[in-house]
Fold:
Amino acid sequence: MEVKNEKDAGRALALSRRRALGAEEREAGSLLICRALARLPELRSAQAVLGYVPAGSECDLRPLYETLRQKGVTLAFPVTAEDGSMEAYVPGGELVPGRFGIPEPEKGRSRRLAPEELDAVLVPCVGFDDDLRRLGHGLGYYDRYLARCTRAAAILTAFEAQRLAAVPTEAHDRAFSVLVTERGVFRK
Structure:
């Protein structure tokens, strides 16, 4: 099976598992993930973090964002463009629906952070494996953006239900050094 087909099969499996989690299980798992993230040295020392707004059944990191804000951390969120690029913006008001219906900062009212200003990037995924390889939606936004983040710690977040036996990879795919699930922190 070619890599694209293998990735599509992995996406379908991981998404069905994640969607099968009940609302209470997702909420409890999200809180455990937030607590583990808050204890990470990479976030405890961070001054600027790129988070994400959960889409569908993704883990919800909003409790962590409140903790980070209380510590004075600058919190940004992705803004995507039609050309496949992504940038980090600190919201200057309410978030508005973006290209995929996911809330994001309104560019005209928000402040852009350059990738080199970020200390950490929290990265959602569709699936992952024991080697901390990430399977995304296949559009490459995070792959391209993380390649520009010269000093930020890239931290993968997911529910254990999204764990796959193996994630097929291509040249542009990267393995992560830190993954946080509701079962704890995993490092490579």
In short: Residues 3-187 form a domain with the Rossmann fold fold (CATH 3.40.50.10420).
